[in-house]
Amino acid sequence: MKLLVFTCLSLFVLGSLTYGAFKSAISSPQRNENTVTKTFVDPIENDDSLGNKIVNFGMGLLGTPYVAAGCSKNGFDCSGFVFYVYNNFKIKVPRSSSQFEYFGKEIPISDVKKGDILLFLSPTRNVIGHMGIVTNPKGMESDFIHSTSGREMKVVITSLKKPGYNRRFVKAIRVL
């Protein structure tokens, strides 16, 4: 009987409160011997391990050749690489780097975490033209994995300290 009352009350509470209010309501419950406490966690918002998994998956693609418009293990362009990696985790992101200009949540570079995305200007035009995934968050000295059409012509890890990327850096975004 107590379980039935608890279940009905839980359904009423869930239906009556917004997610944020519900989260607040359960974060500091009054406890007694008969209270069942369950913590609800938004798995994407609070799971740093997802960022680690994204980075580890991307690291498995190091050395994959750069291919213009490529989006497979046979070869990637920069946005094809990010698209492929995130898609592996069923996370929808745009396919083109220019479509990232207003996508995700902009975050200060000092707050980046593994799995966040860095956006850069094109080397030849004043538009978003390159991107990579943060592998080692250290603000403006963060490392990121990306598919480069530069000298290496493959998926590599680069430091944001590198002048060619540092001066073209536009912003960091979070989509997790």
Shape: globular
Which structural class should the secondary elements be placed in? alpha+beta
Give the strand content. Answer: 15-25%
What share of the residues lie within helices?
A: 25-40%
Order of helices and strands: HHHHEEHEEEEEHE
Taking the sheet with the most strands, its summary is: 6 strands, antiparallel
Radius of gyration: 21 Å
When the domains are counted, the total is: 2
Identify the CATH architecture of the largest domain: Alpha-Beta Complex
Number of helices: 6
What would the keywords be for this entry?
single chain, 2 domains, 6 helices, 8 strands, 31% helix, signal, Peptidase_C40, protease, hydrolase, Papain-like_cys_pep_sf
Describe this structure in words.
There is one protein chain. The chain is an alpha+beta fold and 176 residues long. The protein has two domains: 1-40, no CATH class; 43-174, endopeptidase fold (from Nostoc punctiforme) (Alpha-Beta Complex). Helices cover 31% and strands 21% of the residues. The chain contains six helices and eight strands, in the order ααααββαβββββαβ. The strands form two sheets. Strands 3-8-4-5-6-7 form a six-stranded antiparallel sheet. A hairpin with a 2-residue loop joins strand 1 and strand 2. The chain is globular. 26% of the residues are buried. Residues 1-21 form the signal peptide. This is Cell wall-associated NlpC family hydrolase. Keywords: Hydrolase, Protease, Signal, Thiol protease.
